Amino acid sequence: MKNYIDLHIHSKYSGDGELSVSQLMEKCQETGITLMSITDHDSAKANATAKAMAKDYNINYITGIEIDCRYKGMDLHLLGYGFDETSPDFESLEEHIWTEERNASLWRIDLTHQLGFEVTKEELNAISNLEEGGIWTGEVFAEVLLEKPEYLNHELLLPYRKDGVRGDNPMVNFYWDYYSQGKPCYVHLDFPTLGDAILMIHKNGGKAILAHPGKSLKGRLELIKEITDLGLDGIEVFCSYHNEEIAKQLYEMAVELDLIVTCGSDYHGKTKPAVTLGGYPCWIPSKELKNEFILKGLLKSSG
To answer: Is the whole model's pTM more than 0.70, yes or no?
Structure first.
């Protein structure tokens, strides 16, 4: 299903994104996206360029970010929209998280060796989209390992090959299976609490939205009520990870709790090849969603 609103897109400013801001604007225009937001992990850098370019592409743009945070021992993602991207709060957040990521990346090399794979910093930097190098996500490890001829038939990698059971999004699936929370190569990072992340977004005039709760809450959707009590403004109901049943359940919760309903693909490019811009199941027409965004203060009426 193709939609014309996508409020969850990643650029090269995310460690696991592929495309530049200008490439994303072009791709969104080609796809027919008319309302978008670039929500890079812990970085607001893309927004100034995207806002300046949006009019030339006949696209309405909402400032965005995706903050890694923690709640009750769970790693969660908080989407922020419509905030002041020039605030030093976001530069400080990015500097802190990237320092954490650089330290964690070194640990990930050792943990990857423990899985039985050999990989070097040079190989990882050659794949990474970050010019300065030194940050290697689980997806970067996956891409390097999947391209090594000596591991062509390695039993741990076979599920991520073409036609394998995890081959639809091989790199991000490898990340989820080996580098995400609770997995063998997971490294704990000092993320802000969910409450602090919500406060940061509100302090800078934005709306705080819980990203893909059907996936990140691991089935504990009842937590949405207590998270709402922290000041949450909305939930991402329609996304690539929610089937119609989960989306319906989340939509009913959003209506009951008077939360903003948002939608987005979580597009990254090559790390998630099965995820396309605007490609998420949604039964609500774009016009109705935009009217709801205006009503709830996510989008100005002029947009």
So the answer is: yes
